[in-house]
Specification:
The chain is of the alpha/beta class. Among the domains are: 7-153, Rossmann fold; 328-391, RNA polymerase sigma factor, region 2, helix turn helix motif (Rna Polymerase Sigma Factor, Chain: A). It is 46% helix and 15% strand. The protein has 16 helices and 11 strands. The chain has helices at residues 17-28, 44-54, 64-76, 87-95, 112-120, 130-147, 156-164, 203-206, 216-224, 226-239, 277-285, 299-302, 316-327, 331-347, 355-366, 375-398, and strands at residues 7-12, 33-40, 58-61, 82-85, 101-104, 124-127, 150-153, 178-185, 246-250, 256-262, 267-271. It has a 7-stranded parallel beta sheet, sandwiched between helices. The protein has a 4-stranded mixed beta sheet with strand order 9-8-10-11, with helices on one face. Helix 10 packs parallel to helix 13, helix 14 (331-347) packs antiparallel against helix 15 (355-366) and helix 14 (331-347) runs parallel beside helix 16 (375-398). 47% of the residues are buried. It binds nicotinamide-adenine-dinucleotide and magnesium ion. The site of nicotinamide-adenine-dinucleotide has 26 residues, from helix 1, helix 6 and helix 9. Magnesium ion is lined by residues 155-157, 231.
């Protein structure tokens, strides 16, 4: 039982997979959490139902027509929730002084500005939106420090590493004796598929993940293993780990969510069923623990855990991400933007599955290694990479 007033929460991307799991945890603990604001891009029906259940003060929609539809529906239902629209409103609900915690669960670079707003205003930032951190790297970490924010990872791997690190790691990283960070990866739906079959993979096949139910973009990222590549860059920033300290371990059962290897030979792992409500509840209640609706881990039913090295010939996106991290400067922003464009084009049947790494690689080759020392420079690199990617995509879609 919480011994203080409920923490007030804004959920950015409330209608998505992470947003819905977050609200599931909130609903289990009405004494601990209170919803201040919810946001979504277009799905006004889903946001309407969430507004009725959680009665937030504000609901923000990205799309103007969807905002109108939501406002009409809420008025009709006698709801007091105020509907707002657009980027400034999104930043406002992340930065509002009444807010204690912000769940950053928008997909892609679109989540960067509101997540930064939460960091700058010293919130407890629950970070699912890995693309925001990949895109802005040091700038994001600086905003967290300067704003006095508490940054807690929601990505299951990073949440596992956070749990496996000592509590004072951020203050005394050198004393911790960390040798390696071991990021586990399921290998996605095509880990063992014949290589010749990958060219003809459909979006539906790519989105059918063996262990996790997720949004479509991250599902494709898992199938290409770009998701793990983005997570390598995410781990670099969250834990101050250079590329050489981060190792990817393919673990098809998705039971070990990641590990830390220490100088004395100890390896500390975090295990659990693959259910995002575990890292969400962990971060929301931290440093306490709460019930998350997740069934207990049945080790006897699992019986065995397997490990493999990642196959970089099968998954070139993982290699490209390591290269972008080592190159630094604008390269991670270019990698992320080119990937977002390529994945969207793949989901729209404009390019094939194997065109995704080809488009990203072509964009990285064009990118200069300039520093990105301001938000404007980040968005310029992002916009430039999207132009390159769109032209690569149109060439490839013509030749299909
Ligand atoms: P999703 O596609 O299910 O949901 C995305 C949410 O963002 C929706 O609410 C949508 O309305 C909103 N949104 C989309 N485009 C937007 C835009 N341009 N502006 C404002 N809002 C927009 O995605 P998801 O699977 O919930 O993933 C969300 C984030 O969490 C991603 O960054 C993903 O990498 C990360 N993540 C997800 C999982 C998972 O299990 N789903 C696990 C780890 C990390
Ligand atoms: Mg993950």
């Amino acid at each position: 039982m919480a011994d203080s007033a409920p923490r007030r929460l804004t959920v950015l991307g409330a209608t998505g997979s992470i947003g819905q799991s977050t609200l599931d945890v909130v609903a289990r603990h009405p004494d601990r959490f209170e919803v201040f604001a919810l946001s979504a891009q277009r799905q006004h029906d889903k946001l309407f139902a969430q507004c009725l259940q959680f009665a937030p003060r504000y609901a923000v929609m990205g799309d103007a027509a969807a905002a109108d539809a939501l406002a009409r529906a809420l008025r009709g239902a006698g709801s007091a929730t105020e509907v707002l629209c657009g980027d400034a409103a999104l930043e406002a609900i992340a930065a509002a002084s009444e807010v204690d915690m912000v769940m950053a669960a928008i997909v892609g670079a679109a989540g960067l500005r509101p997540t930064l707003a939460a960091a700058r205003t010293g919130k407890k930032v629950l970070l699912a939106n890995k693309e925001a951190l990949v895109l802005s790297g040091q700038l994001f970490m600086d905003a967290v420090r300067q704003g006095g924010a508490t940054l807690l990872p929601i990505d299951s791997e990073h949440n596992a590493i956070f749990q496996a690190l000592p509590a004072d790691y951020a203050r005394r990283p050198d004393a911790a004796g960390v040798r390696r960070v071991l990021l586990t990866a399921s290998g996605g739906p095509f880990r063992t598929a014949p290589l010749e079959s990958l060219a003809a993979v459909t979006p539906e096949q790519a989105c059918a993940h063996p262990n996790w139910v997720m949004g479509r973009k991250i599902s494709v990222d898992s199938a290409t293993m770009m998701n793990k590549g983005l997570e390598v860059i995410e781990a670099h920033w969250l834990f101050g780990a250079p590329a050489d300290m981060i190792e990817v371990v393919v673990h098809p059962q998705s039971v070990i969510h990641s590990m830390v290897d220490y100088a004395d030979g100890s390896v500390i792992a975090q295990l659990g069923n693959p259910d995002m409500r575990t890292p969400i509840a962990h971060a929301m209640a931290w440093p306490e623990r709460i019930e998350a609706g997740v069934r207990p881990l049945d080790l006897f039913a699992i019986a065995r855990l397997d490990f493999e090295r990642p196959d970089l010939a099968r998954f070139p996106c993982l290699r490209l991400a390591f290269e972008a991290l080592r190159a630094g400067g604008a390269a991670p922003a270019v990698l992320n933007a080119a990937n977002e464009e390529a994945v969207a084009a793949f989901l729209n049947h404009r390019i094939g599955f194997l065109d995704i790494p080809a488009v990203i690689s072509a964009c990285l080759e064009r990118s200069a290694s300039q520093a990105v020392d301001s938000l404007d420079a980040v968005f310029a690199a992002d916009a430039c990479a999207r132009d390159w990617a769109r032209s690569e995509i149109s060439q490839r879609s013509v030749s299909r």
